[in-house]
Task: inverse folding
């Protein structure tokens, strides 16, 4: 495992790479390793590497943008928003969860991720953040996990920087959507091309149909999620809504 004294470099030939092909070179002085930005198993194992590469160097702003959108929507609603029980789906090492706690505030925060490395990193880097953290696949949710999760009676689903590519697919996202209460707050972001005409990932079709029926969108923002390693803005939609009763 790398220690914390490392230098991150971007490849010289960095143009034309799709987001899931992008990589960095991490150099410790003794060894140099190529790590794909979507290789979370590897990235989370190095304390601080995810934050340094994605948030500091590539200026990811999604947690702040989504939390601000959510706050605006809450300020405009007449609901009591003091007892939020949040399912942080695709929680990773807790960057978005932490923003949720600090910027918006919540009563309960439960993380879910598909890889054990994410849970391990969250407990290592943010030990007091989550009330509970499950490593599960929502496409193959076991009864015992489902029962445990259901006890939290979630009234908010948050999925930040975790939809699309080989991350959370439409089926798992719709399962998580079904999992939270009627009238729950729904907060997510997604790369703009996945919501555009011509998308063949299934997101456009499924999310449009969701937004036409079971999700009332209150806020929708087109913004720069982060820079690519070639320094170009990557645009996403941030969406905040309420699940229809
Ligand atoms: C870019 S990270 C985002 C982490 C966190 N939400 C944040 O904003 O920092 C994407 C996370 O989604 C997780 N993920 C990918 N596919 C998943 C799935 N099917 N179910 C749950 N988590 C998944 C990955 O393991 C990774 O931790």
Result:
């Amino acid at each position: 495992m790398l220690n914390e004294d490392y230098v991150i470099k971007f490849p010289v030939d960095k143009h034309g790479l799709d987001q899931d092909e992008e990589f960095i070179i991490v150099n410790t002085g003794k060894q140099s390793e190529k790590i794909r930005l979507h290789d979370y198993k590897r990235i989370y194992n190095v304390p601080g590497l995810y934050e340094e590469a994605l948030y500091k160097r590539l200026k990811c702003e999604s947690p702040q943008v989504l939390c601000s959108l959510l706050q605006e929507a809450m300020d405009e609603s007449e609901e009591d928003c003091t007892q939020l029980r949040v399912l942080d789906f695709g929680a990773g090492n807790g960057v978005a969860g932490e923003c949720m706690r600090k910027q918006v505030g919540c009563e309960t925060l439960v993380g879910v991720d598909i890889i054990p490395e994410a849970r391990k990193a969250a407990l290592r880097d943010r030990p007091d953040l989550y009330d509970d953290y499950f490593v599960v696949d929502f496409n193959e949710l076991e009864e015992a996990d489902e029962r445990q999760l259901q006890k939290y009676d979630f009234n908010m689903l948050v999925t930040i920087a975790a939809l699309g590519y080989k991350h959370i697919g439409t089926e798992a996202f719709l399962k998580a959507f079904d999992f939270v209460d009627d009238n729950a707050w729904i907060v997510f972001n997604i790369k703009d091309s996945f919501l555009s005409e011509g998308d063949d990932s299934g997101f456009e079709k499924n999310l449009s149909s969701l937004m036409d029926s079971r999700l009332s969108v209150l806020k929708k923002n087109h913004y720069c999620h982060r820079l690519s390693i070639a320094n170009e803005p990557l645009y996403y939609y941030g969406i905040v809504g309420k699940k229809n009763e």
